[in-house]
Design brief:
Helix content is 45%, strand content 22%. The protein is α+β, with helices and mostly antiparallel strands. The two termini are 66 Å apart.
């Protein structure tokens, strides 16, 4: 006990300090590394007035936008351009919702429950509701179908109907809020009568003038010297004209891994070996042969000659049956074409059909084959007996894609209908009706019309790509890697380009969220590097499909006012014009007459007629609003010579010879009304108003840190 007591007495303070340090360490660990720690990487991709968009939410919005785009794509595939559009669409949706919601809340705009119900069930339903529940047969709004859908929402076990209804409600609420907001803005558009009267008075005269023009072009640019200080002063005095967004500029060299002549020869050898088999393969076995040997899928159907989309199509379309043509190049493929068959077929056929589906082994849907055959036969008999084909299709057909339009389809030789269906449509005669069996069941098909009979061909293609070999690819990579290793800064990069005669390309104004660079393609990695590198840095080798790229960062542009380097040519031209104006004004030296002005600058006296204050364009002079303003300045009057006027194309001295009245009568009220309607029309489009609102809100875009 005495030992323990000694420890307590001697080390009590130390123990207390250790405990305190442990507690503080625990708290700091939680603060810096815990779930809500300040050191944890932010998942916020952007903010609007402090309202955050989380990366998870943003990705879901992108997926929704891509899903909508995929439904509109014929193949269901999305290229990089469409994917980038989906990303921008998702971001713009978030920004718009935050900005507009704040506006709605500020103005007290809302859509009540009763109003929403009225949008569905009122006397004048919302246009989106009318569109969704319009009878395709009659073209009329089907209120009964709407009520049935609303009443059956609770019985839908899948939840799809409820989801669709919620989406429709959300769309209606947003559109109604926007309509109310625009209506309020429109209510504030006012053009007072007194202002219209003043404008009419200003435009009530036409002037005839004499003038002397001293063009800026009369002084050579080479005689005007400007300093960087003068140029920067001009930029600072005109900042609004030099606003700029954040951007980067990179210069880059592309080392292309394109197929060599040897690669082409190797591909051709493989193709020639397979071509011998193509010569002897008949129609019955051609599909399997193409699947084994060709990179061009076999199309077991005819294509109208007019729709043939291959190089040298006229030659191929004229081949005798069984003949092989080639080799020829089709993009990066070497191809042989073999004529399998030819016919005279219509290029467009309109048919209508009724499908009675047979049992599907996977889903169990459909009727047993024998029952389906009996049913289709009875339908055929009913049609032949005078029954309405369109009504039977709507009532009995198992094809959801056509039953609502009377079972009609347009068939072409190259369309993707099942073989039996398409063969009857193309080979039958107008008016002919027949029961046709396909993998889907029994179809009663009637040919309604056939148009534009002409040659159609069935062609098998043996195609192989010409690809860069590993050796060719390795050479391109080695060249790129060597270039990157030998050039570590912008100076050596440029020197090597000049010495080796390389083709340097420039990617200017790269934005933080750019994904594609012209000439390179999808190059997100390069863009991200450009925003992390320092000016003058040279990149490592980037790999992009069939090319290797080495880049140097040559420009960094911050958001705000453009630097002199970015706008030097533009600013130099403006400052030189300003200095030329000063020289010309000094030469003119407040002339007392046009004759004195003409003599001072050695320019002729000229005339202009029908100058009106409403139009800043003057005949034979161009866009010169300062000159027009001076002409109608009462301080000068008729017969007096103006002081030198610094214009757009030169310095002018003007004398008004006389005024004539504008006899065109204008009603102030009509003028005000027209102006108000014009402004309201721009509000209906919404674009200009929204851009103004964006400038008034604080928007922070951090997406480039995540993508």
């Amino acid at each position: 006990m005495s030992v323990i007591q000694k420890i307590r007495d001697k080390y009590a303070v130390v123990i207390v300090v250790v405990i305190c340090v442990a507690i503080v360490s625990f708290l700091l660990q939680d603060a810096f590394f815990g779930r809500n720690s300040i050191m944890r990487r932010s998942t916020t991709v952007g903010k609007v007035n402090g309202e955050e968009l989380d990366i998870t939410q943003y990705q879901q919005m992108i997926q929704d936008a891509e899903a909508a785009a995929r439904q509109q794509s014929p193949t269901g595939n999305l290229n990089e351009q469409v994917q980038q559009y989906a990303r921008e669409q998702a971001w713009n949706q978030f920004v718009s919702e935050q900005i507009m919601t704040a506006q709605y809340d500020k103005l007290g705009i809302q859509v009540t429950e009763n109003e929403l119900v009225d949008q569905f069930s009122g006397k004048e339903p919302n246009p989106i509701v009318v569109q969704q529940f319009t009878d395709r047969k009659t073209g009329q709004f089907d209120r009964a179908a709407l009520q049935q859908a609303l009443s059956s929402v609770g019985q839908d076990q899948t939840g799809r109907m409820r989801t669709a209804l919620k989406q429709m409600e959300s769309y209606i609420i947003r559109s109604r809020m926007q309509e109310k907001y625009i209506s309020l803005i429109k209510g504030g558009v006012y053009y007072p009568k007194w202002l219209a009267e003043a404008q009419i008075k200003d435009n009530s005269q036409f002037a005839s003038v004499s003038y002397v023009s001293a063009p800026y072009a009369s002084i050579a640019d080479s005689t005007i010297k400007v300093t960087d200080s003068e140029l920067n002063t001009y930029i600072n005095n005109h900042k609004a004209n030099f606003k700029t967004e954040e951007g980067r500029r990179v210069d880059y060299i592309s080392f292309n891994a394109l197929p060599s002549s040897q690669d082409t020869a190797n591909a051709l050898k493989v193709l020639l070996d397979a071509k011998d088999e193509l010569d002897t393969t008949g129609l019955a076995n051609i599909e399997n042969f193409v699947k084994r040997n060709s990179d061009i899928p076999y199309f077991d159907g005819f294509v109208a000659k007019s729709a043939l989309m291959v190089p040298q199509k006229d030659t191929i379309a004229s081949l005798p049956v069984g003949t092989v043509f080639g080799p020829y190049f089709d993009n990066n493929l070497i191809v042989f074409a073999k004529m399998m068959d030819r016919k005279t077929l219509p290029d467009s056929v309109k048919v209508r059909h009724i499908l009675i589906a047979t049992a599907n082994p996977q889903t169990g849907a459909g009727l047993p084959d024998s029952i389906a055959k009996i049913r289709i036969d009875s339908i055929e008999a009913a049609v032949k007996g005078g029954a309405d084909f369109k009504a039977l299709a709507a009532q009995l057909s198992d094809d959801p894609g056509s039953k609502d339009n009377g079972g009609e389809y347009d068939v072409t030789p190259s369309s993707s209908f099942v073989t039996e269906f398409k063969d009857f449509a193309l080979d039958g005669k107008t008016g002919e009706m027949k029961v046709v069996k396909t993998q889907f069941g029994y179809h009663l098909i009637q040919i309604m019309s056939q148009k534009n009979f002409g040659p159609a061909v069935k062609v098998a293609y043996l195609g192989k790509p010409v690809e860069a070999s590993k050796e060719t690819d390795s050479k391109a990579y080695a060249a790129a890697n060597e270039f990157a290793a030998q050039n570590h800064d912008a100076k050596t990069f440029e020197k090597s380009v000049q010495e080796k005669g390389l083709n340097k390309r420039i990617a200017d104004n790269l934005r933080p969220m750019d994904f594609v660079i012209p000439g390179v393609g999808q190059a997100r990695e390069l863009v991200r590097w450009a925003y992390e590198a320092k000016k003058g840095d040279v990149s490592n080798v980037f790999t992009f499909e069939d090319k290797y790229v080495v880049a140097v960062l040559t420009g960094i542009r911050a958001e705000g006012t453009a630097s002199l380097d970015e706008v030097r040519p533009q600013v130099e031209a403006l400052v030189k014009k300003q200095k030329k104006a000063e020289q010309l004004i000094a030469k003119l030296n407040s002339p007392t007459s046009l004759e004195a002005a003409a003599a001072a600058v050695k320019q002729p006296q000229l005339k202009a007629e029908n100058v009106n204050f409403a139009t800043p364009f003057v005949e034979n002079i161009g866009f010169e609003p300062r000159v027009v303003g001076a002409i109608f300045n009462k301080a000068w009057g008729v017969g007096k010579v103006t002081a030198p006027i610094e214009g757009n194309a030169g310095v002018f001295v003007v004398k008004v010879d006389g005024f004539t009245p504008n006899t065109q009568a204008v009603d102030p009220l009509s003028m005000a009304t027209q102006y108000e309607q014009t402004v309201k029309g721009t509000l209906d489009q919404g674009g200009q108003l929204y851009e103004v609102l964006k400038k008034l809100n604080k928007i922070e875009d951090n997406r480039a840190k995540f993508f």
